[in-house]
Amino acid sequence: MKPMSWGEHITSKVEGHVLVVTIDKPPFNHVSVDLMSDLAFCLEAGDKEVRIRASVIQADGKAFCAGADFASPTDAVGSGMAGINALYTQAVRLFSIEKPIVAAVQGAAVGAGLGLAMVADFRVASPEARFAANFVKLAFHPGFGLTHTLPRAIGEHRANLMFLTGRRVKAEDALGWGLVDEVAPADELRAAALRLADEIAENAPLAVVATRKTLRGDLAAAVKEQTDHEHIQQTALRATDDFKEGVKAVAERRAGNFQGR
Fold first, then answer.
1. Are 163 and 214 in contact (CB under 8 A)?
2. Is 64 exposed, middle or buried (0-12, 13-18, 19+ CB in 10 A)?
3. pTM
4. Tens digit of each residue's pLDDT (9 = 90 or more) over 177-220
5. Which CATH superfamily is domain 4-185 in?
């Protein structure tokens, strides 16, 4: 595969047997239906290309992905629940990818951005990386299948801690929790992620895909079932006064003045 663009904000290149995919949607790499669809098309093409044995997902800018932009009325995800439902359709596509994925995480991986990081089999982070499921700070319910994928990765107790506090977890702590597999200096992050992908790619490709399929089981189907449930809960909470206050409070970087209605 030659270097390619996939829509407006996704580019890819091949290094050896690894597909290196870059997200570039400044300034915060917010998720959108189109962005996730383009990313899925790119990775699906990698699945069909015999030369490709693993992928790296990386992002330009200070943030890996700052989640959904609820403050933007022009964004499909920010403007209503239909956009979020469409986003989750793309999430299921991403979890259906057959070949291993390594994420190189710098800066924030927040909300749906954390959900995107969980698409990967492994995560390499810079010391500046921060991971947060901050949905309750928005008076919202977790989404992007995180209520399934996060406990699966770090255990129910730690996942509950992240969900119910909305706290940001530093890269060093995330390493101890198993949320991150390696911490590398910012200027070495992408090289470290590529090394891990190369370590996977040097093995027999059919055996790697078969083993991964066994280990992941029905993960994509489980994410589909979980996002259906998450969407129901999010739809109810989005209609509340607390949600309006939560979006405003997060945008203003202050604690929400919630009233429970």
1. no
2. buried
3. 0.94
4. 999 999 999 999 999 999 999 999 999 999 999 999 999 999 99
5. 2-enoyl-CoA Hydratase; Chain A, domain 1 (3.90.226.10)
Residue whose structure tokens are 């790697």:
208
86 neighbors 33 (Cβ within 8 angstroms): yes
- Tokens at residue 61, please? 């800018």
Dist CA 24 CA 35 (whole Å): 10
Reference 165, options 255, 100, 226; nearest CA is 255
Q: How does pLDDT run across 35-78, given as a tens digit for each residue?
A: 999 999 999 999 999 999 999 999 999 999 999 888 765 555 65
CA distance 29 to 138: 19
Each domain of the chain, given as residue ranges in start order, spans 4-185
Nearest residue to 64 (alpha-carbon basis) of 26, 18, 20, 19: 26
